[in-house]
Write a structure and sequence with these properties.
single chain; 473 residues; alpha/beta; 6-stranded mixed β-sheet; 15 strands; globular
């Protein structure tokens, strides 16, 4: 409730692993477990065609308000950040160290062989200023490829071909050796990053969770970031891989196909590897004159205390070149009963009253803080967003598609719920958006929605929604 908690503060998240993992479950004929569905990672899997920034900031900010598709008495707030895209000529040189799990569990076709395919595509995209190293770990760790120019593709590809799976996993020792290589060949002003490729089965060696996190955080402060590429099924330690990527100022992607490898390492390679803004935080202050209550969809493990917003010591998410980040709030307009039970009147305090500035013109103000990649001091700016009674049919294509993905995440987490949209309505809403789809990702999303619908048939009871009223054919 806004009068009790007017501030919502969270860190951005550009990870997409949850979407790929959900896709793997659905395409194999089963529904994903609820805790594998992270709504923000499903939403941020897609590009929403936001305009590029035009000012001095490394990203632009967009906000939109329209009717909530799954509850006609509520509104949906859509906040989008778009990172500046870099031309290839603008990209800084890259010092990349691949830390490759070659343990026995990586021998399956969707693990080490798929990793080789992905790295071949990345190598094809590398130039003479770039350097790539490879460290393998499995029982004992070793340097497979010393720093090699991106122009020397035969040497790099030859090292890839020599990788073989076998043995147990000593992830802790491998990480230490990979970081040592990254520091030894550090490029000032360049991209210095370790990329851990594994099925997540850290079962031998330095496996203490806190020790690994401490190592990753210390190296992050020294300018070497860590990203994680997850492969395969069965051994995947999703939570641990997501956490060490977050602590390493990196991304966590799950690669389940050649197509996904190309998306992560080639199509979005700049965003995956090149950071344009770090420790990006958002703080939304809702206006009690227009909003009674709100909820942030997703970002459960990215929420921050209000006082963390201005604390530059508090780590937050990084934004890569060309990356976009989308956040959605469902809000209850003032005068509309909020879900849940009320609370008794306070005995020792008077109820909080809206300030004079709380007119009905504004819905909320969003503040953003971020640091330049080479700075430890943040910059802040804010944007006031007016209230609006826009119908769903009049909302932007980005709004409609993001709302459909959010509804999909919510339905996957609770397929038998009577609340929210059913899978047929989600398909209809996503299909109505009409956003460009050059790589077929949106078409694939519609197929996944239909697959989930079949797996859970008979479908949940349909609910009254704006999708039927405004987007029905």
């Amino acid at each position: 409730r806004v009068l009790a908690e007017p501030l919502s503060t969270f860190s951005i998240d550009v990870d997409t692993a949850s979407y790929s993992n959900v896709r793997r479950f659905l395409q194999s004929g089963s529904m994903p477990p609820a805790d594998a569905v992270r709504a923000e990672e499903l939403i941020n899997y897609f590009d929403y065609d936001y305009p590029q920034p035009t000012g001095v900031r490394p990203f632009s900010v967009h906000a939109e308000v329209a009717a909530c598709p799954w509850n006609s008495t509520h509104k949906l707030v859509h906040i989008g950040l778009q990172g500046k895209a870099l031309a290839k000529a603008e990209a800084a040189p890259r010092n990349l160290v691949f830390l490759i799990d070659v343990s026995g569990s990586m021998s399956q076709e969707d693990k080490l062989p798929l990793l080789r395919e992905g790295l071949r595509m990345l190598v094809d995209d590398m130039g003479p200023r770039d350097r790539i190293s490879m460290v393998a770990y499995a029982g004992a760790s070793g340097l497979v490829l010393p720093p090699t120019s991106g122009a020397d593709k035969p040497t790099i590809l030859g090292a890839l071909d020599r990788l073989e799976a076998g043995g147990s996993t000593n992830g802790g020792a491998g990480i230490a050796l990979a970081y040592a290589q990254a520091r030894k060949h550090f490029i000032p002003g360049g991209v210095n990053r370790v990329l851990l490729a594994s099925d997540g089965d850290f079962n031998v060696g330095v496996t203490d969770h806190d020790e690994l996190i401490h190592l990753v955080e210390q190296q992050r402060k020294r300018g070497v970031y860590l990203s994680v590429l997850g492969f395969g099924r069965g051994n995947l330690n999703d939570h641990m891989m997501e956490q060490i990527a977050d602590k390493g100022n990196g991304n966590y992607a799950y690669i389940d196909s050649r197509r996904e490898a190309k998306k992560v390492l080639v199509h979005e390679g700049a965003g995956t590897l090149v950071t344009i803004a770090k420790d990006v935080k958002l703080q939304v202050e809702f206006n009690p004159a227009t909003v009674a209550a709100y909820r942030l969809i997703g970002y459960e493990n990215r929420k921050l205390a209000a006082q963390d917003f201005k604390d530059d010591r508090k780590d937050a998410g990084e934004l890569g070149a060309g990356h976009s980040v989308t956040g959605l709030y469902e809000i209850v307009p003032a005068g509309t009963p909020a879900p849940g039970s009320g609370v008794d009147a306070l005995k020792y305090q008077k109820p909080v009253q809206p300030a004079a500035a709380a007119t009905d013109a504004e819905l909320f103000t969003v503040k953003l803080r971020y640091k330049q990649p080479d700075s430890d001091t943040s910059t802040e700016f804010e944007l006031a967003v007016p209230d609006a009674d826009r119908r769903l049919a009049a909302a932007s294509p980005a709004f409609k598609f993001a709302a459909a993905v959010a509804a999909f995440a919510q339905r996957l987490r609770d397929p038998v719920s009577k609340d929210g949209l059913d899978f047929a309505q989600i398909h209809q809403l996503a299909d109505s958006a009409g956003l460009p789809d050059p790589h077929g990702y949106r078409k694939e999303f519609l197929q996944l929605v239909d697959t989930a619908g079949r797996l859970t048939s008979p479908a949940p009871t349909r609910v009254a929604s704006l999708v039927d009223d405004e987007l029905g054919r």
